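User: I'm preparing a small set of examples for a lab meeting where we compare how different chains pack in three dimensions. I only have the primary sequence for this one, and I'd like the structure in C-alpha cell form so I can line it up with the others. Please keep the answer compact; I'll paste it straight into my notes.
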Amino acid sequence: MEKKRFSDDPLKPNVSHDSLPGQTAPPKTLTQKLENPLKGIPHDKLIADATAFAHEYGLSEDADDIAKGALVAQDPKRLEFLPQLSEEDKDAFRMESTRKFHQTRELWLLVACCSIGAVVQGMDETVINGAQLFYPRDLNINPDVDVWLFGLTNSAPYLGCAVLGCWLTSPLNRFFGRRGTIMITAFLSFATCIWSAVTNSWQHLFVSRLVLGLGIGPKSATVPVFAAETAPANIRGALVMMWQFWTAFGIMLGFVADLAFYRVPNTSTINGLNWRLMLGSAGVPALLVMAVLPFIPESPRYLMGKGKQHYPKALRALKRLRPHPLQAARDIYYIHVCMQEEMRLIAGKSAWFRFVELFTIPRNRRATIASTIVMFGQQFCGYKTTDIHRWINIIAYYSANVFARAGFGELNALLASWGFGMVNFLFAIPGFFTIDKYGRRSLLLVGYPSMCIMLVIVSLGFLAPFDKQIIPVAIGIYLFTVQYSYTSGPVPFTYSAEVFPLSHRNLGMSLATATLWFFNFILAITFPALEKAFTTSGAFGWYAAWNAALFCLAFFFVPETKSLTLEELDQVFSTPTHTHVAYQIRQVPYFINRHILRRKVQKEQLYVFDDDHVKSEDSSSV
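Assistant: Understood. Below is the C-alpha cell output for the 622-residue chain.
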C-alpha cells in the first residue's frame, strides 16, 4: 500500500492513511522522527554514523559497542537477525526481558536514594497529623472557631509548593543538575523541619512550613524524573513507582513518630515538646538522602544536555546503571539522536515560550491535560496526601480528627491513623508489580469507582448513631486506602514523569507538581470549613462524587503509557483527542461482548508504531 507523504513541518501533525483494515488511521507524531529517529537508515550507514558519533564525542574506545547498540536501538525486535552481533552480544540484550530486575548496584542505590527522598515527603506530610492535636493550644488557635487559620497553617507547605517551589524546578535542574537539586531540597526539608519545631507563634510556624514547600516542590518534581531518566524502559514504571511506595512508608513513619512522642511531657523551659519532636523528626530522612547522593551517578540525559564534553561522563554513568556495556552503548546513542531531534525543535525558544507550548502544541497539550487530570485526581479522590501521593487527601491530613469525631479518643485516633498508614504502605506493594503489567490507565479505571464506593460507605457511616459510627467509618477508610495505595496513589507521578517530551519535561513536570500541590493546598485549607458547612458525612460524599467524575475524565482523556519508551510516547500523545475519545467509546461494546457475553470479537488497535509491530492500548476496554 502506498503511504502518504508526510509534512516536513515539525509543528504540524502528520496523518497517515496507511492502516490495517478496520483500524483508525494511525496519526503521525508532532515530531515524527522521534517515533524512532533511526528507522529506515541502512545498516551500513547506521554503523558509519554511530562510529563517527563515538569518535566525535570522545567515545572512541567504545565505538564498536556503540555501533552494535545502534543496530539494536533501530529495531529491538529484530535482534536475533543481526549478523553483526555475536551470541554473547545477543545474550546481553536478551537479559533485559528475561531478567528484568537484574540491575546494577548503582541503579538500586539510586532507587534507594529516591525512595528515601519519598520517605522525607511522607513524613513531612503526616507528622502534622499528630502535632495538630497539640500545637493549636500552645499557639493560641481554636480549630473549631479559627477554621481557616487552622487550615492555612496546616496547608502552608502546599501553598509554597504551588506558588513558587515547583517553579524553581527548572532553574535548579539547569544550574545544579538532578543530584544537586535533590541535595538542595533535602537540606531545605531538614532545616525547615527543625525550624518548625522551635516556633513560638502560629505566624512563625506558618512561615517555616511555607518555606518547607520550597523544598518539597522541586524535590517532588525532580526525583520521579531522575528515576525515569535513569531506569530501563521495561521497568521504568515500577522503579518510578518506588517514589509512591516509600512515600507511603514515610506516611506510616510519620504516624509512628506521632505515637512515639505523644506522651512526651513538657519541661520547665519547653512547652509542647511532644509536637515539636513530631515536626522535627521529619528532618532525619533528609540527612540520609544527603549522605547517599555523592555515591550515585548523575542523570546521563542531563549530562548529555550540557554539551559534547560531558558525553564520556554520561557513558560512564550509563555503564554504572546498566548490567552490560552494550546496553549502555545502545542507550547513549539512542538518547543522543532523540535529543538532537528534540533540541532542533526548541532551538532559540525561551523557557516562557516552551511553557506556552505546553498548551499550544497539540501533542504537548494532550500530555498536559492527561497529567493535570491524574494529579488533580490524586488530591480530589479524597486522599489527603500529596507529597506525591497520599493522605487521603482528607483522611490523611485530618485522619486523627476524623477518627476522633467517629468516637475514638485522641490516642486511639492516632493508633487508627497509624493503621491507616500501615495499610497504605502495605498495599502500595501490589502497585509496584501491577503498574507495568496492567498499565497506568487500567489502575485508575479500577481505582476511581472502588474509591467512590468506599467514600460513600464512610459518608453513610457518619449518619449512623454516634456509638455505631466507628465500624463503617473505619472499614470505609481502610478499604479506601487499599484501593488508593495501588491506583491513584502511585500512578500520577509515574505518569507525569514520562508523558512530556524531553524538550518540555522540566516545565511540564513543574506544572504537574504545581497542580498537585495547589489542589493539596485547597484541600488542606478548605476541609475544616467544608466539614463544618457540609457536615463530615457531606464532605466525604462530595469527594465520592469527584471519584465518579474522575473515572469519566480518565476514561476519555488519559491515554495508556505502559511499556513505551520515553520517545515512543510522542506518538501516543499526537493522536487527536477526538480520535482517542471516539476509540474509547467504541471499546464499551467490545468490553461487553468480550468480557460479559464471552464472544470472540477482534479488538480494534489504536496505535501503530511501525510497519510490522502493532501496539494497542491495553487498558482501553476499561
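A couple of notes for your slides: Residues 1-34, 385-398, 611-622 have pLDDT under 50 and may be disordered. The radius of gyration is 25 Å.

User: Perfect, thanks.
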